[in-house]
Amino acid sequence: MSFENEEEIWRKLEEQFGVRRIEGVRLLLSGRKRIRAVSETLLEKTHIENPLAMGIYFATIMPDGIRLSIEGSQMVGAEAKKNIVEVDDSLADKWLKGETIPVNPSLKGYVIVKNRGDFLGCGKAAGGTLRNFVPKSRRLKQQPHP
Amino acid sequence: MIPPLFLELGQDDYVLDVCAAPGSKTTQMAQIMENKGGIVANDISLKRITSLGHNLQLCGVLNTVVTMFDGRRMPLLVKDRFDKVLVDAPCSSSGHLLGKKPPRFTERRVRHLSMLQRSLILAGFKMLKPDGILVYSTCSIHPEENEVVVDFLLSKERDAVVEPFNVKGLKTRPGIVEWDGRRLHDSVEWCTRIYPHDNRTDGFFIARIRKEGSK
Predict the structure, then answer these.
(1) Is there a domain that residue A124 lies in?
(2) How many CB pairs under 8 A join A and B?
(3) Residue of A nearest to B83 (CA)
């Protein structure tokens, strides 16, 4: 894990979502593409070399932008100024079940999904639809037919 | 959960959770610390660490490092380093009296666990800074897994001191000072027993131990 390119990641986040650096949070690269978020105080305290994991999975660097995890979208969402899609309850339900949902055709690229003040993750908008990235293990289960 | 409350966590603490998985106490500690300070969440089992990692992710815990060591051997890597240490030791779960299934244990298993718990409490204590706090807890009501383990630590480490601690609104009982015809250290009485019929909870044992500062 390394802090190489941290400035570059923050710059891309600002470009994509209009967020400034989040106070007390550091971003580090785990592997080539995955970004983890760690509290600054942890880095001051810890002395453990090569831990299994640090902080949480925050985002993945994709060729066409940064794709946030659900927790990443919750951290960024509150401060984000652009690329946020507000959805109603019915679309939020579909989204949480892992379905692709319709969006404004003018939207393009990675956007944060918001419903009633809650941030539900990040999707990729293209051609009037929003591709879903909610992991299978975290999707709402379909109600079985009676 | 009650054991993290006994640690009296602050936002500047560096905390070790020796047997952290599946992470309910670790996430509670992170919440109390408001994602500040630092926590080392350790466990010996990779399978259990997977669920620990999952729970840390779900709760958005930023101040935690996950490690996989045998807690008994950790003092070979780090000593006198942590402000607070939680040893929520593996136990017979004999306090789970309100569950659907009654707890199952044998005398042999309790003896085996008691040996493991002694090694863990001793290791946890060695990693504590002078004036730091160690909390030892189990969900067992067997004295062999509780007071006898604390008595073992007190006999090995002269700078270990048991401290009384109360949680408001929780009915507790003192530790047992005599067991199996043997008188234990007097201060073992300051340990806390929580019985199922007192609070409608599972049975629990908690000891808060301070490492006296170097003289």
Answers:
(1) yes
(2) 68
(3) A45
Min distance B81 CA to chain A CA atoms (Å): 10
Which chain A residue has its CA at the smallest distance from B79's CA?
A: A47
Domain membership flag for residue A145: no
Expressed as residue numbers, the domain containing A64 is 6-138
Model ipTM?
0.91
The answer to whether position A54 is within a domain reads: yes
pLDDT in tens, B181-213: 999 999 999 999 999 899 888 899 999 999 998
Q: Is B83 helix (H, G, I), strand (E, B) or coil?
A: strand
Burial of A106 (0-12, 13-18, 19+ CB in 10 A): exposed
Please check whether residue A1 lies inside any domain of the structure: no
CATH 3.50.50.60 fits B3-210, yes or no: no
Neighbours of B72 (CB within 10 A): 16
CA distance B208 to chain A (A): 23
Q: Could you give the number of structural domains in chain A?
A: 1
Q: Hey, is the C-beta of A55 within 8 angstroms of any chain B C-beta? A: yes
Residues 6+ apart with CB under 8 A from B69: B42, B44, B77
Boundaries of every domain in chain B: 3-210
* Cβ contact, residue pair B67, A48, below 8 Å: yes
